[in-house]
Amino acid sequence: MLQGKKILLLVTGSIAAYKSVFLTRLLVQSGAEVRVVMSKGALEFVTPLTFATLSKNPVHSDFTENKNEGTWTNHVATALWADLIIAAPLSANTMSKMAQGLCDSFLIAVYMSARCHVIVAPAMDHDMYLHGGTQENIGKLKSFGHTILSPKEGELASGLLGKGRMMEPEEILENIINYFHPALPLLGMKALVTAGPTYERIDPVRFIGNFSSGKMGFALAEALAAQGAEVTIVAGPSNQFISNPRIKRVDVVSAAEMLLACEKAFETVDIAIMAAAVADYTPKHFATEKIKKQDAEFSIELTKTIDIAYTLGQKKSAKQLLIGFALETEKEEEHAQQKLQKKNMDLIVLNSLRDEGAGFVSDTNKITLIWPDNKKQSFGLKAKREIANDIINEIVKLIKA
Ligand code: CTP
Fold this sequence. Notes:
It is a single chain. It contains 13 helices and 21 strands. The chain has 401 residues and is α/β, with parallel strands linked by helices. Helix 4 packs across helix 7. The two termini are 26 Å apart. The mean pLDDT is 94. The site of cytidine-5'-triphosphate has 15 residues, from helix 11 and strand 16.
């Protein structure tokens, strides 16, 4: 989401400087190139080496730090490099200097030389934040066109309760993405995706599973995140890989574990996509010791698993969207429509195993989307990544409807 963006992080003297270490990591993971400038006060809280290691760039805090080599650090070049400046945490002291143009440090000289947009995330104690001087300075920064990320209420380093906690790094990242991509349709929304197979344990060495690779579900999670959503993917055993910081991965093994993880996440999400191939049956008893080979025939008693999509469909509020999959081999559209109605879904994605190139392990898929009013739309054989984009585009239309 931030590929190729140059972000200059100004860190000032506040205990919240430790949170900016995480912010640096999130920015780098999102594709941004990050450089860090620290105030003298910030050096008391976190070492420059931490930021230098994470940003993979040298950290500066003074004009003359390289004077023994006969060079100086150029504040103007540092400022003009940036596509965006984020001052986090911004202390009351540095905020006041920014508002006044009091240029007594390298950090302020960089800030005053900048031509890009500036976002600030103040951090200070409750009463310092409410002080008339601070409020006046915030007003001034707003009048310069800066974006103020208001601090949050909560426990402060002083032990007091109140407003002054710096916004959490994940939320700062959201705001930065919003600055670069203001029109992303799912920004501010949360999504849940299930993916992959489930393994139902028989004994310590055996399980009942299926051939699902998880590719479709992982592609959907990436497509949701690319449209701005914050995603939780609940994945059964799968060797698919996620590096997007906007996607939280929860690994599970069995249908029962997947149900628990989904119920936990569902309350706060706007969109849930059930792309996992969940086992319909699980062994009634788990053998704690390895089952020994004995008779010529052997049977395992199975019991039905709880249907996750159905469970979430019963809990769904009017604002939430539930999307499911149907993998069928005959009477495909009829069966898919029945599943959609029974599980209270808003949209179902039908795959037919009769279509070549569709199904579990392949990189391609061929789908038909079916809505509750029986509207249908079929798509040609495509890469799962492209199919994921087609599905998410339809979900965006449902949200906007
Ligand atoms: N599903 C689920 N939990 C289950 C079984 C299925 O959440 N225990 C979800 C799947 O992720 C999919 C949808 O329900 O989105 C339909 O799954 P599918 O296996 O096609 O249908 P079933 O309802 O299991 O019916 P059948 O296997 O008899 O076709």
